[in-house]
């Protein structure tokens, strides 16, 4: 029996879908059998980020309502044989499925896959309830902004009253230069408020945007800082102890020059 | 008259007798048995020199008339000298000591913890979270959200927190917003506990994780 992990945040636009796609891909990269589930009915994105949009035939709603078998709706990834995705419907809304239906589908997937990564929609309404229904664990994504931390706190409160195990935190989109200048919330401050375990920090990386647009998860690109961060998270999910990434600014020409002469 | 049950126990101590009277049975039943024992079954023991008697009523509380009835029965035997009658204090039900109720957990954004009376909360109240009480609020942890003490109009109520950095404070009808700039203070309260025979230290906000039978707040 596999493990179902829901990726959630409360606030929109903090990187739930990107995180889902990259953690899922990173787990597949590490040889795990993974299925990604998009529960953002009506505003599906995961298929776009994964570059699988044009392969969708059936979706989550079709499975829930028995219009197709679960296996018919699953899309195999372009890159990995052991990575699959269950897309959300785009033409319906969150009320089109019930938490029980999602729970049954996730349970079915867990029999087949080692990891089921559930991409949760923003908000705390029906869509959120659907997404967490079948999950064993949760990853809460936040960015170093007060508003995002506030919403993450709300979500953690709701998760703590659900069946889901105590959630783990991903702090996304950290800007090294802003942290350095003290203009960004520090990880330590965020942890102080949220009081849950940190499972990873991801630096802001333009390559993530580029990758999402081209339908190729960042994690495939070993030159990206964010890719390394996501790979680390995947390894921590598998139980490895991986030290937190050191967030530092890219060295400018001058410091490199100094270093070359043994001055830096 | 046959007495089957044994609600009256007579024990000898070095300087007298102790009458242990059952505290669960019917009072009339108890009296009947007491009379029977004194007049019939234990007659021979109870005659002779003066004997000091202690009466123990257990947890039964009796009024003065009932007490007198027992004493009258015992006094019928001229040689019994009643020394003490032990029973729980008579009067209104002993009021339970009222102190603050202790709760642990974490009040997160959107959650409301309300308590009737004084509340000692071990944990954090986060921004967007609210803690209210009709009495005082004591927080062992950080208060970053809103606290409202004396909600029903008690102006004597207070709010205490080991780290006081609230969004808003309310006592009774009065609302106060902290100054825009708070001095940065760092006070983290910790607690020590034993785990597998090893002493460990953790933040007070993790106290609920101890798994003890705390009153853990589960908000929605």
UniProtKB/TrEMBL annotation, chain A:
- Residues that span the membrane, as ranges: none
What does the entry list as the binding residues for ATP? Answer: 11-18
Q: Which UniProt keywords apply?
A: ATP-binding, Cell cycle, Cell division, Nucleotide-binding, Septation
Show where the CobQ/CobB/MinD/ParA nucleotide binding domain sits: 5-217
Biological process annotations from GO: division septum assembly; negative regulation of cell division
What Gene3D superfamilies does the entry give? P-loop containing nucleotide triphosphate hydrolases
Q: Which GO molecular-function terms appear in the entry?
A: ATP binding; ATP hydrolysis activity
Q: Name one GO cellular component term.
A: cytosol
Which Pfam family name is an example for this entry?
CbiA
Q: Which family does it belong to?
A: Belongs to the ParA family. MinD subfamily.
Q: What task does this protein carry out? A: ATPase required for the correct placement of the division site. Cell division inhibitors MinC and MinD act in concert to form an inhibitor capable of blocking formation of the polar Z ring septums. Rapidly oscillates between the poles of the cell to destabilize FtsZ filaments that have formed before they mature into polar Z rings.
Q: How is this protein named in the record?
A: Septum site-determining protein MinD
- The protein's organism comes out as Paenibacillus lemnae
Q: Which gene encodes it?
A: minD
UniProtKB/TrEMBL annotation, chain B:
InterPro entries, alphabetically? CAP/MinC_C, MinC, MinC_C_sf, MinC_N_1, Septum_form_inhib_MinC_C
Which UniProt keywords are present, listed alphabetically? Cell cycle, Cell division, Septation
Could you give a single Gene Ontology term from the biological process aspect?
Answer: regulation of cell septum assembly
- Quaternary arrangement and interactors, per the entry? Interacts with MinD and FtsZ.
Give the family, as the similarity comment puts it: Belongs to the MinC family.
What this protein is reported to do is described as: Cell division inhibitor that blocks the formation of polar Z ring septums. Rapidly oscillates between the poles of the cell to destabilize FtsZ filaments that have formed before they mature into polar Z rings. Prevents FtsZ polymerization.
Protein name per the record: Probable septum site-determining protein MinC
The membrane-spanning stretches of this chain are none
What positions does the domain Septum formation inhibitor MinC C-terminal occupy?
Answer: 103-201
Q: What is the lineage of its organism?
A: Bacteria, Bacillati, Bacillota, Bacilli, Bacillales
HAMAP family per record: MinC (MF_00267)
The Septum site-determining protein MinC N-terminal domain covers 8-84
